[in-house]
């Protein structure tokens, strides 16, 4: 028998707010670091049974917390142990959800790398634990930050490892062709059930204490478990004579470190070391040995979708706030690239809050079983506060920057001048939008007296040109929208003024508008009705309605039907699912496995009850579709179809009721562009083809996107932004056997797409309650003679971020 070796990597898995409150978890890791310092001092002064002890900080956040709450002397002692290789720092910041912003993530990678570099330590390794994947862009960010080795010890609870097999190495090739060495590992506490730490068998009771007899009995169990483990590896033809496994001080998340595992490791090696040797090492130590092993590693390219990304949609209101903060963050960087106009502490505070919100834990372990518990609710509100705090800080920073651009606060009798700014590095054709509160006047006149919408006009201050505009009511007054094309970084000043002919009543002798003001006359020679409850026609789009909602959407430039030929549901009409609970709330959810619904899930489709044209002017037409949908008190869709551009903005308003059983709500996006199209989507850090540009064996059911996706035909494309609700579902909604990514799954790239804004099917971490009032916004853009997916996604980004409008 060839001698075998098991490398053990000792760490504590970080779950912020899962086992205790967020601030207490931070304090725990400060104390864990101080415990480590004491352990190593004891080893140096004679605790030889602990010789060989090492500890890996699972992430750099643990180190940051220690530095915030330790003395200079403690920090020097810590740095010395890092230099000695006794303590190692993984260069990931935390175990992140796919919401994490690429720009901020790179800054955190750089901070961790600088820390080890400044200490003169060889460190280029990082790990993730628990989470079930990382975006393709995350791999690029790691490599470009100096991280060359990546260890994944994911948790297959509602998930699965890639490549159809774990405990194997591979090169993960980035989109740019760079390569990370990845160990596709097992669970982050695989070695704990081997009972390597004394008195760690939770099934045993010792009324008279844990003595030598009990230690011998546990060691016998250790022998049984480890030999059985290696026998099983042999049966599966495991190819290597070594294997790594993660271990915590005790079998729990956020575990305190324990050097006592060395006592059993030494005993094992003295007893069985000639057959199987145990070695406690560090992450870097393992990768150094792996790279020197002479093994040829296979190479794979593509995205690594996180099976757990969907849990974030259990807090849809705060996801929306977080996404708004992300957009403002990037706008401030475009408006203030050198950081001279804003305040650094607000920007850095935003970055920290955004990272904390995107940390994977999300909520308390008992979030489903005890949703009323005070500790559960405290953890939930504190996690949500990260999104709110990020939004608050970045808004303050944005206002500070815009004050340098000339923004003024409300002023009585102010001449209604506005500055419109294109913050982007590209020419943008968009819509300026300025608001007038109910108490404000224009040239001495108030809006409320002229609700027909012909009160004001928009004028370019420099050229004197009157820009077409349209007015709509808001919750505080009115908004005025007007089209502009702005060069990169261009600023334009406009002014609102009253129309000279504001009170002139236009009468037409044509058979168009009757005294009831209902536009329901069909086309006849010399007249075309372009906006009714049956259709909306522009030069770019033709949208037709029937008794169930939108029946057809046609690109008028190419005459291509944009609704997928296999569509089961109408665009935006709403689909609700609920799985009856046959057991307790937690068990019912656990048994769902990788399906996000039960085999007996009940599915309901929204039923149209009303359709009205609520606004029609020179810039756009707004149709309002009202539905009845199970699980909601209100389901309403507002379609704003622009007349002078190939664009439609959709707002879906939902009043969701409370339901404790596992539930999902989907918004169908059943689009395509011709039969021979390809779906491209953007995650944080890059664009990819779902079900194609992925690691083998990964999830193909759903994806958490950043700015949106594009359906790319042979010459033209359709772009859909995911502004507020980042999660999409791809394929059939029915319960099914899970299709992992492989060659045959490429055809799934052209299956039906759904926005998936809310669910509550997880039995831990994530919220049980998704009730509330929500509005989710989407933009649909037609792009002609352009099939460059990177450019198309940049258009989605610019559409989501918009242009800036400020009073001056």
Would you give an account of this structure?
The structure is a single chain. With 808 residues, the chain is an alpha+beta fold. It has 4 domains: 4-307, 7-stranded beta/alpha barrel (Alpha-Beta Barrel); 316-404, no CATH class; 417-498, Sandwich (Immunoglobulin-like); 557-807, Golgi alpha-mannosidase II, domain 4 (Beta-galactosidase, Chain A, domain 5, Distorted Sandwich). A 9-stranded antiparallel β-sheet has the order 26-27-28-29-38-35-34-31-32. It has a 6-stranded antiparallel β-sheet with strand order 25-24-30-37-36-33, with no helix packed on it. Strand 13 (441-442) and strand 14 (445-446) form a beta hairpin. Helix 1 crosses helix 2 (60-68) and helix 1 packs across helix 3. The radius of gyration is 30 Å and the shape is elongated. The mean pLDDT is 95. InterPro entries: Glyco_hydro/deAcase_b/a-brl, Glyco_hydro_38_N, Glyco_hydro_38_N_sf. GO terms for molecular function: alpha-mannosidase activity. Residues 5-300 form the Glycoside hydrolase family 38 N-terminal domain. Pfam families: Glyco_hydro_38N.
């Amino acid at each position: 028998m060839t001698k075998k070796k098991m490398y053990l990597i000792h760490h504590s898995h970080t779950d912020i707010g899962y086992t205790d409150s967020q601030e207490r978890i931070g304090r725990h890791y400060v104390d864990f670091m101080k415990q480590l310092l004491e352990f190593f001092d004891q080893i140096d002064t004679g605790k030889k049974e602990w010789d060989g002890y090492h500890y890996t900080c699972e992430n750099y956040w643990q180190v940051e917390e220690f530095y915030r709450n330790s003395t200079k002397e403690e920090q020097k002692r810590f740095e010395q142990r890092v230099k000695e290789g006794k303590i190692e720092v993984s260069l990931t910041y935390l175990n992140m959800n796919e919401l994490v912003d690429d720009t901020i993530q790179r800054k955190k990678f750089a901070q961790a790398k600088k820390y080890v570099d400044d200490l003169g330590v060889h460190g280029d390794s990082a790990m993730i634990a628990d989470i079930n994947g990382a975006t393709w862009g995350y791999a690029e960010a790691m490599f470009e930050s100096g991280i060359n080795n990546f260890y994944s010890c994911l948790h297959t609870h509602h998930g699965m490892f890639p490549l159809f097999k774990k405990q194997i190495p591979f090169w993960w090739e980035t989109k740019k062709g760079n390569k990370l060495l990845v160990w596709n590992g097992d669970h982050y506490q695989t070695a704990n059930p081997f009972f390597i730490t004394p008195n760690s068998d939770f099934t045993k009771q010792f009324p008279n204490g844990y003595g030598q007899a009990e230690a011998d009995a546990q060691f016998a169990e250790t022998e049984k478990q480890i030999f059985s483990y290696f026998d099983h590896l042999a049966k599966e033809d495991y190819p290597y004579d070594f294997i790594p496994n993660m271990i915590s001080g005790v079998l729990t998340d956020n575990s305190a470190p324990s050097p006592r595992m060395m006592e059993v490791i030494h005993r094992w090696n003295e007893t069985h070391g000639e057959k199987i040797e145990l070695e406690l090492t560090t992450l870097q130590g393992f990768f150094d040995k792996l790279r020197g092993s002479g093994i040829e590693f296979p190479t794979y390219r593509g995205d690594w979708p996180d099976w757990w990304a969907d849990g974030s949609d259990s807090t849809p209101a705060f996801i929306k706030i977080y996404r708004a903060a992300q957009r403002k963050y990037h706008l401030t960087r475009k408006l203030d690239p050198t950081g001279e106009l804003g305040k650094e502490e607000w920007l850095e505070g935003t970055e920290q809050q955004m990272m904390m919100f995107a940390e994977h834990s999300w909520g308390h372990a008992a979030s489903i079983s005890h949703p009323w518990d005070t500790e559960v609710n405290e953890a939930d509100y504190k996690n949500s506060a990260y999104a709110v705090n990020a939004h608050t800080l970045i808004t303050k920073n944005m206002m500070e920057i815009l004050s340098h651009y000339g923004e003024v606060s409300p002023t009585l009798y102010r001449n209604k001048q506005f500055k419109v700014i294109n913050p982007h590095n590209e020419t943008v054709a968009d819509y300026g939008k300025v608001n007038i509160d109910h108490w404000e006047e224009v040239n001495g006149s108030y809006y409320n007296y002229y609700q027909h919408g012909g009160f004001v006009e928009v004028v370019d201050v420099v050229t004197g040109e009157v820009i077409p505009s349209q007015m709509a009511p808001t919750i505080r007054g009115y908004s005025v929208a007007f089209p502009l094309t702005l060069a990169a970084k261009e600023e334009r000043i406009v002014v609102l003024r009253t129309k000279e002919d504001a009170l002139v009543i236009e009468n037409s002798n044509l058979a168009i508008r009757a005294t009831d003001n209902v536009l329901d006359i069909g086309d006849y020679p010399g007249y075309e009705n372009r906006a009714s409850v049956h259709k909306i026609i522009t030069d770019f789009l033709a949208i037709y309605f029937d008794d169930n909602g939108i029946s057809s959407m046609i690109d008028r430039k190419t005459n291509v039907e944009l609704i997928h030929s296999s569509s089961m549901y109408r665009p935006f009409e709403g689909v609700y699912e609920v799985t009856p609970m046959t057991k307790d709330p937690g068990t019912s959810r656990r048994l769902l496995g990788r399906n996000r619904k039960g085999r007996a899930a009940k599915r309901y489709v929204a039923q149209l009850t009303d359709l009205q044209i609520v606004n029609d002017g020179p810039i756009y037409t707004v149709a309002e579709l009202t539905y009845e949908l199970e699980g909601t008190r209100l389901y309403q869709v507002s379609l704003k179809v622009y007349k002078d551009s190939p664009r439609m903005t959709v707002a879906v308003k939902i009043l969701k009721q409370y339901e404790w059983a596992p539930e999902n709500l989907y918004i169908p996006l059943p689009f395509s562009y011709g039969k021979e199209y390809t779906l491209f989507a953007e995650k944080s850090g890059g664009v990819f083809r779902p079900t194609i540009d992925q690691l083998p064996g990964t999830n193909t059911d759903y994806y958490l996107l950043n700015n949106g996706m594009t359906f790319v035909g042979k010459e033209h494309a359709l772009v859909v932004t995911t502004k507020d609700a980042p999660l999409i579902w791809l394929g059939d909604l029915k319960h099914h056997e899970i299709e992992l990514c492989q060659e045959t799954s490429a055809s799934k790239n052209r299956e039906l797409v759904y926005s998936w804004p809310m669910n509550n099917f997880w039995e831990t971490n994530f919220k049980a309650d998704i009730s509330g009032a929500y509005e989710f916004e989407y933009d649909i853009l037609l792009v002609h003679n352009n099939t460059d997916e990177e450019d198309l996604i940049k258009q989605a980004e610019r559409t989501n971020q918009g242009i800036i409008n400020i009073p001056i």
